[in-house]
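User: New here, any thoughts?
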Amino acid sequence: MILCLVANVMILFQVVPEVISSKVSPEMTLCPAVMGLINIDGGSEIDFVSYAEYSSTVVVDFENSTASAGGATDTLSGIEGVIGGSGDDSLIGHDSVDNIFRPGAGNDSISGGSTVDELDYSQREVGVSIDMNSGSAALYEGAEVDSI
């Protein structure tokens, strides 16, 4: 069960989202993104927003607290991590908050802020080669190359 505050409504996500009222605060939550919401608020814990279902390019800018795709924009607050989609996403970190980036498929661009950020490929089913000198991460499943 995953709890998230979306547009000022507490939502518990199981297989089908249900609207509930609860004081439960899990250590880590995942907010499924529905592009164009007024606000996605993760609260005070370590929270992720997921755009894994998106095949178009998604731009997540933690510094400006926004995520956009296809002309629609989400406002993010209390969100520290992002799971990218299968498009060529742009993931931008915050300068005063540690962020966690989990890029999806596609040739993504990941730019951390001035804090200690985490680039996480642990959910990928193939090997990853990261070259810090060239600023790239190549996945062994094909021509996918992320720039970091």
In short: Residues 11-28 have pLDDT under 50 and may be disordered. The first strand starts at residue 2 and ends at 6. Residues 24-147 form one domain.
